[in-house]
Amino acid sequence: MNELMTQYHSLVGVGILVGAVVNILKSIGTVKDGQARAWSTGLNLAVLIGIFVSEQMGVNLKIYDTQAGELGVLVNTAVGLVVQLAGSQVGHTVLKGTPLVGKSFSS
Of 14, 32, 63, 85, which is most buried with the most CB atoms under 10 A? Predict the structure, then answer.
């Protein structure tokens, strides 16, 4: 078990992917304010159990850590872009018609 815990702590990609999943769940409203830590802990525990079970069955899932990290970075970037685009639209709506910054040249 100590070896499993040591190996799990070295799986940076899994942590990034779990963070990305929590961010998505926050963005769609599944995870409410103040719940992210609990969700992150639960998902990390589920991954730890999954790795333990897979090791007992002779399957090495740890080899996918790098891909999990890359996927997590990609997902975080995509979620960030969507939030940024939505924020720009909200900003435009709020500032519409105000002097100087709310000017529109469309007809």
Answer: 14
Q: Residue 72 belongs to what domain range?
A: 2-95
| Number of domains composing the chain | 1
Q: What string of DSSP letters covers 46-65?
A: HHHHHHHHHHHTT--GGGGH
Single-letter residue type at 30: T
Exposure string over 65-101, b if 16+ CB within 10 A, otherwise e:
beebbebbeebbeebeeeeeeeeeeeeeeeeeeeeee
The answer to whether residue 103 is domain-embedded is no
> Nearest-CA neighbor of 23 among 14, 31, 12?
31
**In a domain? residue 104:** no
Q: What is the pLDDT of residues 51-87, one digit of tens each?
A: 888 888 888 777 777 788 888 888 888 888 888 888 8
Q: With respect to residue 107, please indicate whether it lies within any of the assigned structural domains.
A: no
Strand segments, DSSP code E, in the chain are none
